[in-house]
Amino acid sequence: MKPLLSEYRNLVVLRTFSKWAGLAGLRIGAGAMDCRAQPRTMMGMKPPYNVNLAAEVALLASLSDTGILLDRVDAIVKERGRMYRLLCEIPGITVWPSQANFILCKMPDGRGLEVYEAMCRRGVFLRYFDNDLLRDYIRSSVGKPEETDAVVAGFRAALGVD
Q1: Domains plus CATH for the chain?
Q2: Which positions make up the signal peptide (predicted)?
């Protein structure tokens, strides 16, 4: 998106380091913008505390090791595709395409909590949604192949699919 900065004066491109750099919880990221007014506006909205030293050190270490980090991103993207394909094979589940490090699935109507609780009993902890917009939805992070296999096997077992 950065090449569009010169074309759109009001564009702000933000990048978190939480997932791809493994710095979740440190609340660190970067922003790029073309207009001089935008940084002032953003600084006016930020919390009163700046980035802490631990986050800064971790960020600099990550930036010196981007090859390894990008290899991890490639592995997650590959595994996300495999996970998506396997989940789509399970009857009754609606799987939403994803460009993130998670996949959102709609369980059969009224069975979301049942499936979620069955997964918890198996030691597979996912994010369950129970609100008007996402009733019966479960979100699974993309991880290692064996973790994908555990999610798929757990869904199949909970839904009684061979």
Answers
A1: 2-64 (no CATH), 70-158 (3.90.1150.10)
A2: none
Hunting for tokens 């505390």 — which residue is that?
A: 49
Cα 155 to Cα 149: distance, rounded to the nearest angstrom = 10
- Residue 123 CB contacts under 8 Å (≥ 6 apart), including other chains: none
Q: What is the pLDDT of residue 36?
A: 67
Long-range contacts formed by 24-32: CB under 8 A, 24+ apart: 26/52, 26/54, 26/55, 26/58, 26/59, 27/51, 27/55, 28/55, 28/56, 28/58, 28/59, 32/2, 32/5
Neighbour count for residue 158 (Cβ, 10 Å): 20
CB contact at 8 A, 143 and 82: no
Q: Is 18 exposed, middle or buried (0-12, 13-18, 19+ CB in 10 A)?
A: middle
Q: If you write DSSP's letter for every residue of 63-116 in order, what string do you get?
A: HTTHHHHHHHHHHHHHHHHHHHHHHHTSTT-EE---SSSEEEEEPSTT-HHHHH
| Residues 5, 1: Cα–Cα separation, whole Å | 7
Query: With a cut of 50, which residues of the chain have pLDDT below it?
Result: none
Write down the pTM of the prediction: 0.77
pLDDT at residue 37, as a whole number? 64
